[in-house]
Amino acid sequence: MIMNTRQPRTAHFRLDNIPDGPLWVKELSSVKCPNNSSMQIIVPDGDILFVLHVVREWYMKVEYVDTEYSLWLTWFLTPVIVTFLLPAVILVLIYVSSIIFHIYRLYRRRLVGGVHGDWRDAARMAVCALWDAHGWLWHGYEIRGLENIPEGPFLIIYYHGALPIDMYYFIARMQLLRRRHIHTVADRLLFKIPGWATLLEGLCVIPGTVQTCASVLKAGNPLAISPGGVYEAQFGDHYYKLNWKARIGFAKVAQEAKVPIVPMFTQNVREAFRTVGWLRGVWLRVYGATRLPLAPVYGGFPVKLVTHLGAPLHHRPDLTPDQLQRQVATAIEELIEQHQRVPGSILRALTERVYEIPKRKSLAKTDALPNGKCKNGDVKREPSDSCQSDSSEKPKVS
């Protein structure tokens, strides 16, 4: 009996040197893959073509899996990337508005000569038409409660979303429909952004001290202020809680200028744009140290936006700034309670573009205390109520 004492041979193959053609498949004794570029295969002595077939099949399967994974990853990440890129559309519109003001300023004699006496007013109308068209097309923007806008100067106090696009749309609609330009107060950071100076000047945006704001109102111009400001924009959420802290500067402005206050709230403003919830503590510490709003903003969803204007709160000299601040906070929270479903839902806000879902009135919250304070005015309470106080101690609020 003759025994075969020959040892198996070791073959090395490059994946890019596999020939084409039909191959015979035989059983492998073992396969070793030290790296991705080459394969070391130990086979019995004999025809080695079956090894080429196995290597080819393995390579095709790996390539197929890699292609499917990359396609799945692209499909999964595309919506996430888009949600962070859509806010850039607002930035582009802002720079387009700034370019419009630069064009009117540089060519004011050719553009407005014989047509309009004030180039700033002409540029403002063009910019407002741009923003009003965007609000109407992308958000179906509406204003309800225009009858509450008083004649003469007034102060608008509004809830600040992640991006104050509702104020952009509101200013544009008021300029186009009522020919009334709303002056606004903005953070000083905006005045340091390159290319924005002419736009902010043309739209009458001011940094905002008590004296400058009061002078704007005394001159007969309406003014809009968000007491929450950048802090409320960065760290508010879809529960729509006011983040005013102890800010009473707007109340001092209203008392000094002796003008009525119009509370304002825009429904679904937090569903259009949101700030990320993760690492909120980090962004809060960074903001406290640098005053820079670095929390990422995502969104740009075409949700329904409706601005609600409450009844004006007329000037009352007997109120202190603290009392007036609580009164205005109560008025805005009542607008939120009446028109906003909490917590907010992006899907529901998108549905409201085609069908407005009426909010159910909650009977359990009829006696709730807005902003954690006692209600102003005459409220009947049981003697055991912790908020019970003598009506002579606090002035009544209409």
Summarize the SSE layout with pairings.
Layout: E1 9-14, E2 30-32, E3 38-43, H1 49-85, H2 87-106, H3 108-112, H4 119-139, E4 142-144, E5 155-158, H5 165-177, E6 183-185, H6 197-202, E7 205-206, H7 210-218, E8 223-225, H8 229-235, H9 249-257, E9 261-267, H10 269-272, E10 273-275, H11 280-290, E11 297-299, E12 306-309, H12 321-339, H13 346-351
Parallel strand pairs: 4-12, 5-8, 5-9, 6-7, 6-8
Antiparallel strand pairs: 1-3, 2-3, 9-12, 10-11
Helix pairs in contact: 2-4, 4-5, 7-9, 9-12
User: How does the major sheet shape up?
Assistant: 7 strands, mixed
Give the strand tally.
12
> Given the C-alpha coordinates, what overall shape results?
globular
Instruction: Give the helices and strands as they follow along the chain.
Output: EEEHHHHEEHEHEHEHHEHEHEEHH
Helix content: 40-55%
How many H/I helices?
13
Spatial order of strands in the largest sheet? 4-12-9-5-8-6-7
Report the mean per-residue pLDDT as an integer.
79
Give the distance, in angstroms, between the N- and C-terminal Cα atoms: 117 Å
Keywords: Membrane, Transmembrane, Transmembrane helix
Domain Phospholipid/glycerol acyltransferase: 142-264
Pfam families: Acyltransferase
Region (Disordered): 361-398
